[in-house]
Amino acid sequence: MNNKTLKKILQYSLYKEANAISIKTKGREQIISFSLPQFIEETMELNLKSDLIALLKEEIGLPQSQTNINNKYHKFNVGGKGLPTVVSLLEEEGQKNLQLQIIPREKRLFTIRQLAWQKEQLRLIKLLSRKRAGLVIVSGPDNSGKTSTIYSLLKTFDSSKLNISSLEYIIEEDIPGVNQICIDDRIGLDFKKLLSALLKQDSEIIMLEEIKNKTDAKNCLTAAATGRLVFSSLKSQGAIDTLFRLENMGLSKKEIAENVIMIINQRLLRKTCPYCIKKHKLDPKTIDKFKTYTNIKIQELYTGRGCSRCQNTGYQGQIAIHEILVLTEKIKNLVQRESSLNTIQKAAIKEGFITLEQDALLKVKSGITTIDEIIAQKL
What we know:
Layout: H1 4-15, E1 20-26, E2 29-36, E3 40-47, H2 52-60, E4 68-78, E5 81-92, E6 95-102, H3 119-128, E7 134-139, H4 146-154, E8 164-168, E9 179-182, H5 191-200, E10 205-208, H6 214-225, E11 229-234, H7 239-248, H8 253-259, E12 260-272, E13 277-281, H9 284-294, E14 300-304, E15 315-326, H10 329-336, H11 341-350, H12 356-365, H13 371-376
Parallel strand pairs: 7-11, 7-12, 8-9, 8-10, 10-11
Antiparallel strand pairs: 1-2, 1-6, 2-3, 4-5, 5-6, 12-15, 13-14
Helix pairs in contact: 8-10, 10-11
């Protein structure tokens, strides 16, 4: 990277652990905004001879004539450190807007043990690694780390003995031993053609990036029904809610019950800053309330005091909370009998199902996050 200004901007984003960089240019006037952790934004206005967006296009390998980019993956080399980003660009009426969405460390490749599962959840994940057929869905809202969780699940399989492939719109990280294929409709590499090719090549484990509609859902079921273990993601509010989302997309209850074997739902919460964490005792009234609500006995909690490392917020980084629904024979029967969400949840809890709220509160107990963060996220 030759341009010093561009290099300094990217280095600054690494130093501040920015989530995104936005560059707006009109003539020589260029406005750079950094979206930082804890919802902080920093903006600087520069008057430069060099066009930063033109320089970025050159760095990314795009023609200067291209005026529209939607979600292109690019990893910058900043002083020997990789900075993976998703690039979007819009140019109109002499104004250019470029966004670099930085893939945070929390969304990069982790092992299963690094994702802070509860003991029972980790046991279920280990059992999953022995499966060879069925559909596994990781669900949650946008930007909740769904793809990263699937990457971590794929790493639990021995790629030297199994044929593992993925179809992705954006390849966020390279996974050793996995045949990762980027979907690109513009050059004929569309989802349907690529999936057909994978099925002919005897891929045993397949990741299909996201279920967006009935066609995607049917494709996942087709692959799972032919004896493959299929992983995909879906936007939904809960593990059990995912069953109803699939039904609303046009899948029958029979199809869902026969092919879906596990649903993992997740959210991201801010982590208590490890540099300024402090322990404080609770008053008897709060202890009783906590026990009544959670059935967890607790005498003290942790919070972050706030320091220079966390921008005085008391938080640094993020952690995922999960709930895992295994479609046992009992749950499958309830799905086919058109049972309500509450009925299925009660049956799942009897079988050991840990809800998002319970997982979050267990992480509060261990000091990983705080009660205030749970309230802020409206869990």
